[in-house]
């Protein structure tokens, strides 16, 4: 499946937006893992902004950046959200509330607990009535999101914003599901090459296990392994280098995605 | 879109195990809703509960996946000859060429809710036997089903609240059109948990009575649990039951309230008709989302009236099953297929006096007639909408 990357958004530890991270991802500058600079998006109305947890901040920040880079109206793209968890702070809070009387889960906590909360806030902020989905495939969540986006672009000829994000659980869940940082990334993917296309990517779903493409820098490799959404880093690195390259992203033990990056 | 054949179907919910139990309950107007008696929940409401889940266990080689949601998944897969159907297509296409795309809203979160009552008093740690990946994580359901059925194709979970297991039909259709797989197991499972019961209650959306869809006095949902699976394959001339179209949209309005004029619902229904190449007048029955909240039924009713007028018979079957949340889409798609197969128009149990503000052809009593094409609606929190068109070849 061939698609075109028109915009990129990125926010993670030491990765403050795509332009500022490009040299680091191309191995032209040193990676320094400072904490993720989370901020509430100015896309949201004030009431929604107050209710936004970490995933919503991540998703809106990277989504907005990718659309701006693409010079594209946020109303004009379908969205594919993907995350291993959802709002992990909120899940912890609800479980704590339900374990003790009185079980007073607030309405906001409840509606923010759905896996598609980030998608719901995005669509309100972006004023988008286009189809939107919210996926989970544990450690393969980014691969699932890329695969789903590729089929939407090629089969439906849709322009798709793929938005991946994950963040840490508080204890006691952190011990059983250690996610090491807050990280989000977004790609605007189109069916045809345009003036703003940065690269073509060819995505193939391949049966069987393959050697995953890793990051050269030890800090970035730790991030890739530590956050499911950061499994996109080898793809972003390939886009940053601006040279033709083929990478492999695992889909569990059974399968992988083969992705060829061809700069425009 | 290219129509796809629906070659097998399995159902399990509070009406019973297997598709026959569901159609029998619909035809005899026996609701599955009972006064709430689940764990130590202290809410005055009705639920669609499957008592059998308290005692069954998942297959022993998959014991790490044991939780209410995966027990329900297994129990459903064991109905209606579904496993035999999967074995046949494994021979036909190979296990790596069959995708698994499933919807759930809460997965195995009940396991976590219960585990939080037994945290280590010294360290605050979760119990040793808590398995996060296999129970709480949303992917748990697809992980369990792929292992249970021995499939190795592409798999993921869609978790878009109450539209989840309708949207998976679109995922499977695209994957097959793109050549990523040749067939797919599609469906959804959601099971009772405290998060949804107390959560919906906090929003004032839980009725004290068995839910009354489209009633003038409707006052909220009844939460239920259930599961459904279908096998999708590329259609041939021999196929009788087809997925004809899927339409998806977003409200862009509010996290937990639908657009008051049904804007997103209208878009989803129109896109589904367009994908199927059908006109509104080609539809013989609409299975409504019909949750029995004030806002859903008002919004959906307006949208249906705008797209279909007041001609097409329609009803919500949630008075029978309760709201199955992430399993609502697949369950109501299955009911739609049973309606086509049996020439049966479900009415609406519990509904006494229709909301006079809604000018649609809402059916309280059951009916019969030739049904070729059905539209089924599923709408979720976050303004996530999906409509399916199912039926005989156009």
Search tags:
heterodimer; A: 264 residues; alpha+beta; Peroxisomal Thiolase, Chain A, domain 1; 9-stranded mixed β-sheet; 10 helices; B: 394 residues; alpha/beta; 11-stranded mixed β-sheet; 3-stranded mixed β-sheet; 16 strands; 20% strand
How many strands, which pairing sense, and closed or not: the largest β-sheet of chain A? 9 strands, mixed
Distance between the amino and carboxyl termini of chain A: 16 Å
Return the string of H and E elements of chain B: EEHEEHHEHHHEHEHEEEHEHEHHEEEE
Number of structural domains of chain B = 1
The greatest inter-chain interface is formed by: A-B, 67 and 61 residues
Morphology call of chain B: globular
Q: Kindly state the percentage of residues in helix of chain A.
A: 25-40%
| Mean pLDDT reading of chain A | 96
Q: Helical proportion of chain B?
A: 25-40%
N-end to C-end Cα span of chain B? 12 Å
Number of strands of chain B: 16
Helix-strand makeup class of chain B: alpha/beta
- The total domain count of chain A is 1
Estimate what percentage of residues of chain B fall within beta strands.
15-25%
CATH class of chain B: Alpha Beta
Which percent band covers the strand fraction of chain A? 15-25%
CATH homology superfamily of chain A: Thiolase/Chalcone synthase
What overall form of chain A do the CA principal axes indicate? globular
What ranges of chain A have pLDDT less than 50 throughout 5 or more consecutive residues?
A: none
Mean pLDDT of chain B: 97
Write structural notes for this entry.
The complex is a heterodimer of chains A (264) and B (394). Chain A is α+β, with helices and mostly antiparallel strands. Chain A contains ten helices and nine strands. Chain A has one domain: Thiolase/Chalcone synthase (Peroxisomal Thiolase, Chain A, domain 1), CATH 3.40.47. In chain A, strands 1, 2, 3, 4, 5, 6, 7, 8 and 9 form a nine-stranded mixed beta sheet that branches. In chain A, helix 3 crosses helix 6. The mean pLDDT of chain A is 96. Chain B has one domain: Thiolase/Chalcone synthase (Peroxisomal Thiolase, Chain A, domain 1, 3-Layer(aba) Sandwich). Chain B has twelve helices and 16 strands. In chain B, strands 1, 2, 5, 6, 7, 9, 10, 11, 12, 15 and 16 form an eleven-stranded mixed beta sheet that branches. Chain B has a three-stranded mixed beta sheet with strand order 3-4-8, with no helix packed on it. Chain B has a two-stranded antiparallel sheet with strand order 13-14. The chains are: A alpha+beta (264), B alpha/beta (394). Chains A and B meet through helix 4, helix 5, helix 6, strand 4 and helix 7 of A and helix 4, strand 6, helix 7, helix 8 and strand 10 of B. Strand 4 of chain A pairs antiparallel with strand 6 of chain B.
């Amino acid at each position: 499946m061939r698609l075109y990357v028109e915009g990129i958004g990125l926010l993670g530890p030491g990765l403050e937006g795509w332009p500022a991270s490009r040299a680091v991802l191309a191995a032209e500058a040193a990676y320094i893992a400072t904490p993720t600079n989370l901020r509430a998006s100015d896309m949201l109305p004030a009431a929604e902004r107050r209710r936004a947890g970490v995933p919503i901040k991540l998703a809106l920040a990277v989504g907005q950046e990718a659309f701006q880079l693409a010079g594209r109206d946020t109303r004009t793209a379908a969205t594919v959200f993907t995350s291993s968890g959802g709002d992990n702070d909120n899940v912890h809070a609800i479980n704590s509330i339900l374990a003790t009387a009185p079980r007073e889960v607030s309405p906001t906590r409840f509606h923010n607990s759905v896996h598609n909360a980030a998608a719901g806030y995005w669509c309100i902020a972006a004023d988008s009535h286009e189809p939107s989905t919210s996926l989970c495939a544990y450690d393969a969540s980014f691969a699932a999101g890329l695969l789903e986006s590729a089929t939407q672009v090629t089969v439906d000829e849709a322009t798709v914003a793929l938005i991946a994000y994950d963040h840490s659980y508080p204890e006691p869940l952190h011990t059983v599901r250690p996610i090491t940082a807050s990280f989000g990334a977004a790609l605007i993917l189109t069916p045809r090459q345009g003036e703003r296309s940065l690269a073509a990517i060819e995505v193939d779903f391949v049966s069987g296990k393959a050697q995953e493409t890793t990051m050269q820098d030890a800090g970035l490799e730790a991030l890739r392994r530590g956050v499911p959404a950061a499994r996109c880093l080898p793809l972003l690195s390939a886009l940053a280098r601006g040279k033709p390259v083929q990478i492999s992203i695992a889909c569990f033990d059974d399968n992988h995605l083969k992705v060829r990056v061809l700069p425009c | 879109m290219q129509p796809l054949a629906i070659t097998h179907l399995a159902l399990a919910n509070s009406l019973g195990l297997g598709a026959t139990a569901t159609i029998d309950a619909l035809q005899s107007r026996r609701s599955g809703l009972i006064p709430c008696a689940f764990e130590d929940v202290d809410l005055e409401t009705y639920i669609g509960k499957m008592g059998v889940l308290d005692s069954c266990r998942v297959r022993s080689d998959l014991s790490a996946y044991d939780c209410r949601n995966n027990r329900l998944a297994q129990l459903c897969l064991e109905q209606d000859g579904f496993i035999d159907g999967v074995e046949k297509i494994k021979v036909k296409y190979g296990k790596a060429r069959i995708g698994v795309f499933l919807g759930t809203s809460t997965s195995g979160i009940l396991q976590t809710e219960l585990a939080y009552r037994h945290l280590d008093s010294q360290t605050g740690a979760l119990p040793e036997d808590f398995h996060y990946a296999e129970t709480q994580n949303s992917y748990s359901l697809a992980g369990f089903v792929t292992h249970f059925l021995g499939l190795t194709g592409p798999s993921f979970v869609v978790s878009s609240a109450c539209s989840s297991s309708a949207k998976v039909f679109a995922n499977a259709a695209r994957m097959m059109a793109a050549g990523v797989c040749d067939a797919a197991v599609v469906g959804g499972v959601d099971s009772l948990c405290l998060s949804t019961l107390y959560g919906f209650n906090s929003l004032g959306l839980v009725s004290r009575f068995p839910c009354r869809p489209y009633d003038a006095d409707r006052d909220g949902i009844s939460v239920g649990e259930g599961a459904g699976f279908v096998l999708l394959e590329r259609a041939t001339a021999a196929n009788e039951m087809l997925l004809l179209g899927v339409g998806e949209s977003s409200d862009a309005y509010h996290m937990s309230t639908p657009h008051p004029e049904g804007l997103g619902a209208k878009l989803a229904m129109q896109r589904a008709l367009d994908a199927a190449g059908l006109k509104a007048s080609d539809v013989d029955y609409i299975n409504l989302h019909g949750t029995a909240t004030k806002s859903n039924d008002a919004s959906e009713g307006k949208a249906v009236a705008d797209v279909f007028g007041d001609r097409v018979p329609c009803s919500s079957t949630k008075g029978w099953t309760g709201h199955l949340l992430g399993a609502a889409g697949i369950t109501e798609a299955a009911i739609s297929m049973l309606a086509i197969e049996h020439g049966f128009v479900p009415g609406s149990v519990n509904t006494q006096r229709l909301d006079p503000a809604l000018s649609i052809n809402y059916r309280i009593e059951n009916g019969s007639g030739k049904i070729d094409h059905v539209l089924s609606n599923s709408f979720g929190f976050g303004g996530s909408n999906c409509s399916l068109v199912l039926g005989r070849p156009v």
